[in-house]
Specification:
The complex is a heterotrimer of chains A (288), B (271) and C (438). Chain A contains 13 helices and 2 strands. Chain A is mainly α and 288 residues long. Chain A has a two-stranded antiparallel ribbon. Chain C folds into 2 domains: 170 residues, D-Maltodextrin-Binding Protein, domain 2; 217 residues, D-Maltodextrin-Binding Protein, domain 2. Classes of the chains: A mainly alpha (288), B mainly alpha (271), C alpha/beta (438).
Chain lengths: 288, 271, 438
């Protein structure tokens, strides 16, 4: 009797949220999949099967944006999460003075408006910008680098911008999770003679496992759907070599002649890629 | 002892460095709001005396206070509902988990993996049929339940000891009571983080409010700023002031809520 | 205790939510113009994007129209061009056209794309009684699709060479030396100015082909041929323009920057000695008050070899369109007809306050256009713009303008990275053809 009631309670907790996701996410997703099987523009679209999916194989810009997006994924996610975890554990120190200031400061970047942050980053990395001035004065480079004008340097600026903007954001999740770790575990470890590094690798990391999984899936998803930086900092340039898939999807949908069928097809490729990566991450990280 | 002091000194140096890098663009933004447009463009990073002129030009040409109120109202309502609905679900998915719920959780996660540009048209059509276009409800409804938030609470609930639940049940506390009286207060650092993230997402959301809300007086801050950047002659001073103003609510929320990042579960609770 | 606080917060949130939707929906019912399935009203909703330019122009038009129609109001919703396009695309694709306003301002380069994709979305103004011959012919050509007129042309994007007379004076030149010249002469002068003053003449956004397109247009050439196919490879005009552009970059006469903000910086900070752009750049140049009296305006250079080369071109500009499904369609058309399509008074009033140069030809004859401008050394710049505007060659812009522009920008970058010109242009042709083959 009691277990039955408990079962009903369990479902009561999860059903409202689940139903809303079904209506506002899954229904449009299915419709968008149907759209990906059609071609044409405007209101008169015709069913053409998988032609949009075949089209991708001939699309040079798609291939370029796909590889760009994976470059960002590889360069950014791991570095960012390690940094976020490291900063969170530094700031979780009870004896540290001015914690609130450091937390606020490190969190600030992700609240900075995209408009101002992209203007400032473009200005910092311009040919006569601050970064070049510093590097030249330190004699690290002989002549100013045209950061946003060259393929690899433009990509690096995007990765740096992502690290700057999202490390503090991810730190919040780790910080919150660290609060939930029983401090007596650390105390016991100290009694056993563990040093700071051992405490971090033997206690903190295993205890943070659910959060690591959460942030890893989130960042993977966020990076594969990366749009803001590509659009606002480099505008995809030079010659599309820093453009992301989502930026391309946006252009296909809203910038020129709308091609929603094709845009939806590409979106489904992104979907499948994220789903595969998330599945792997779940298998590795979500042990009961 | 001196070794420990040395380690602390290193920590502070490192943190101060990180803080400077983090704050600098924000400082630049704030200072730019006090300068004339041509000075902003010239790269001036010292405070100027053009703040009032910039503010006046903003107030004259935009619906600044209306947009601030719209953004605050939408973001607060969205945040409260989002955190409440998703924390219930996250708690349910973890603490009442069975093989069906685990499957459902994985499926729900798929909902965040399709780029918005692809689903926005069908969603817009659906809201048109429901008569929710151009309403605040229509603007907020899709943000109430998000897979990410559910997943976050589900992951956090893993560190909430089952013993507490069992003990409470033995004491005759109902399931709602356990959620409200035990889970919610004990997990307050998770709630704080969730509220910050949820508020931020709502505050920055652009595409959906843009297409759903049609009136000048239902405009939100990001859309107002977008209007400022679209002028033939951009007034960089007042634009930077507008983005500075639009950052303030997020800072307040963060500042107020970060105080909850104190020891959550301690040994005493467990025993 | 905790529970009480939570309950209080939840209640508060719900209340705010309710009040919020209550107030929004009630205001919708109050002025329903945003939603035009409802009965027609006396309010026209307009989407346009610049609070210092076309919005005051629209508000001035409202005042003029109200003299004879005191019960009609105009409700302007400030919306950036990109946002207008997004909302238009979303509404049209999902069939929710009742969310659209009565009048929108449409960028000239996007008109053909929108009319072709959504043929029923915009009102055909051919039989409205508006006299389209009174507008600059190149502007009317833009709004005419398959013989039908779709827009009331508004502002001019006629190009001019804005030049720092103090800098070229230092090098021993006057504005006359730069008037009605060819690009080869311009390059020759530019080298001399650079040698004597250290200042490059021009700046441009890297990968942004606006200047290049303006050069093509000055010779009556477009990115598309008459059949609407991309027209880059094997086109001598394109090749000449690209070569001139590259020569200027190589010689340091033209400095490339990465974005619009830095482009503005090169002008206002005095990095460059001249600007070639649409006349809407005037107010940006004037923002640097220290440089008052140092600037002059003249014609842009023409291509040396292109057969139809002129010193006149256009970059930017927009026009008003009426939405076909609007219940206020007739009112909207009548409004435009009596304001932007016939009132010289309107153009006289908005010129000094906004600097919006009309493409309505009778407006140019008024006194407002012969005003001397102190910033430009007492020059009658608006008269010049109006005169240049009458000379701009008419071209077909092409439905795939955005795609072609982006492909040309890519080609330009690749050429600078060392790729063969024709090879890069061929690739641009292929990219556009691919986009067209949807």
């Amino acid at each position: 009797m009691k277990t039955k009631k408990r079962k009903i309670m369990g479902w009561t907790f999860v059903i409202p949220a689940s139903i809303m996701i079904v209506i506002f996410n899954f229904v449009p997703m299915i419709q968008s999949f149907i759209l990906s099987l059609k071609r044409g523009s405007g209101t008169n679209m015709i069913f053409t099967g998988f032609s949009n999916y075949k089209r991708m194989f001939q699309d040079k810009i798609f291939k370029m944006t796909l590889s760009n997006t994976f470059i960002y994924l590889i360069l950014e996610v791991a570095i960012m999460l390690v940094m976020a975890m490291f900063l969170a554990s530094l700031l979780n120190d009870k004896r540290l003075k001015g914690k609130w200031f450091f937390r606020l400061a490190i969190f600030l970047p992700c609240t900075t408006s995209l408009v101002s942050y992209s203007i400032i980053f473009r200005s910092l990395f311009s040919v006569d910008g601050f970064i070049n001035t510093i590097l030249t004065n330190l004699h690290l480079i002989a002549s100013p680098i045209n950061w946003l004008g060259n393929t690899w340097t433009a990509r690096i600026v995007i990765v740096l911008a992502l690290l700057w903007r999202w490390t503090g954001y991810n730190m919040i999740f780790f910080l919150a999770a660290l609060q939930n770790i029983d401090s007596s575990i650390y105390e016991a470890a100290v009694v056993d003679g563990a040093n700071a590094f051992q405490k971090f690798t033997k206690i903190t990391i295993p205890m943070l496992r659910p959060t690591i999984l959460l942030t890893a899936i989130m960042s993977t998803n966020g990076t594969l759907q990366l749009f803001d930086e590509s659009m606002n900092i480099t505008n995809g340039g030079p010659a599309n070599t820093s453009m992301t898939i989502s930026h391309y999807i946006y252009n296909l949908s809203f910038a020129g002649n709308p091609n929603f069928g094709y845009a939806s097809a590409i979106s489904y490729v992104v979907f499948i890629l994220v789903a595969i990566l998330a599945f792997i991450q779940m298998k590795v990280g979500d042990e009961k | 002892m001196s070794k420990r002091k040395f380690v602390y000194f290193g920590k502070y140096v490192f943190l101060i460095l990180v803080a400077i890098i983090s704050i600098f663009p924000m400082y630049w933004m704030i200072v730019s709001g006090t300068n004339k447009s041509v000075d902003v463009i010239a790269g001036k990073i010292l405070p100027g005396n053009y703040l009032m002129e910039n503010l006046k030009s903003l107030l004259d040409t935009t619906v600044l206070s209306q947009a601030m109120w719209n953004s605050i109202r939408n973001a607060v309502v969205s945040m409260v509902l989002n955190v409440f609905v998703c924390s219930l679900a996250g708690y349910g998915f973890e603490k009442f988990h069975d093989k069906y719920k685990d499957k459902i959780m994985s499926i729900l996660l798929l909902s965040m993996m399709v780029p918005t540009a692809a689903t926005v048209i069908p969603l817009f059509r659906m809201f048109g049929k429901m008569g929710l276009l151009n309403t605040t409800v229509g603007c907020i409804l899709p943000t109430v339940s998000t897979a990410f938030m559910i997943f976050m609470f589900r992951q956090a609930a893993k560190s909430f000891p089952d013993e507490i639940i069992e003990a409470a049940r033995i004491d005759g506390v109902g399931e709602w009571g356990i959620y409200f009286k035990m889970f919610l207060p004990i997990m307050k650092s998770t709630y704080a983080a969730a509220a910050i993230v949820s508020f931020m997402n709502a505050w920055n959301s652009y595409m959906w409010p843009l297409i759903v809300l049609q009136n000048e007086n239902s405009k939100t801050m990001p859309i107002l700023v977008s209007g400022l950047t679209a002028r033939y002659t951009i007034d960089y001073g007042s634009m930077m002031l507008a983005v500075t103003i639009s950052t303030i609510p997020m800072l307040i929320i963060f500042f107020v809520l970060q105080k909850n990042f104190v020891e959550g579960i301690t040994g005493s609770v467990k025993s | 205790m905790k529970k009480k606080i939570l309950a209080a917060i939840l209640t508060a949130a719900m209340t705010i939510g309710m009040v919020g939707c209550g107030s929004t929906s009630s205001s919708d019912n109050g002025n329903n113009s945003a939603s035009n399935t409802e009965a027609s009203s006396n309010e026209l909703t307009v989407w346009c994007w610049d609070a210092t330019f076309n919005i005051p122009a629209m508000e001035e038009a409202e005042k003029i129209y109200q003299k004879d129609h005191p019960d009609v109001n105009v409700n302007v919703v400030e919306t950036s061009w990109e946002d207008i396009q997004t909302k238009l695309t979303t509404a049209a694709t999902s069939g929710q056209t009742d969310t659209l306003p009565d009048i929108i301002l449409m960028n000239d380069t996007a008109l053909l794309n929108n009319v072709k994709n959504y043929p029923d979305l915009f009102a055909d103004l051919s039989d409205s009684g508006i006299d389209f011959s009174k507008f600059a012919s190149y502007k009317t050509a833009i709004g005419t699709v398959d013989g039908k007129n779709y827009n009331v042309p508004f502002d001019s994007g006629v190009t001019a060479l804005y030049i720092r007379t103090d800098v070229i004076g230092e090098a021993g030149y006057s504005i006359d030396d730069f008037t009605d010249i060819t690009w080869s002469k311009f390059i020759e002068l530019g080298e001399d100015v650079l040698a004597k003053t250290g200042k490059p003449l021009l700046s441009a956004q890297a990968g942004g082909p606006d200047l290049l397109i303006a050069m093509l247009r000055s010779a009556g050439d477009s990115m598309f041929d008459e059949d609407g196919n991309p027209n880059f490879a094997g086109n001598d005009v394109v090749a000449e323009a690209v070569e001139d552009y590259e020569t200027m970059v190589d010689k340091g006469i033209l400095v490339e920057v990465n974005d619009w903000d830095q482009y503005i910086g090169t002008i206002n900070n005095g990095t460059v000695a001249s600007v070639i752009n649409g006349c809407w750049i005037t107010s940006t140049i004037q923002a640097q008050e220290d440089q008052s009296g140092d600037w002059g305006v003249t014609t842009m250079p023409r291509l040396d070899n292109a057969p139809n080369a002129t010193n006149y071109s256009n970059n930017g500009g927009a026009g008003w369109m009426v939405m076909n499904d609007s219940p206020n369609k007739d009112l909207a058309i009548d409004f435009l007809k009596n304001t932007f399509a016939s009132s010289t008074e309107l153009y006289d009033t908005i010129l000094p306050t906004t600097g919006a140069v009309a493409t309505y030809l009778p407006a140019a004859e008024s006194d407002a256009y012969s005003q001397e401008n102190e910033f430009f050394g007492g020059d009658k710049i608006y008269e010049k713009f109006a005169n240049y505007g009458a000379e701009v060659p008419a071209i077909t812009l092409g439905q795939y303008w955005e795609e072609a522009k982006s492909a040309l920008g890519t080609a330009l970058t690749q050429i600078q990275q060392g790729q063969d010109i024709q090879e890069a242009l061929k690739e641009a042709d292929d990219t556009v053809s691919f986009a067209m083959s949807e």
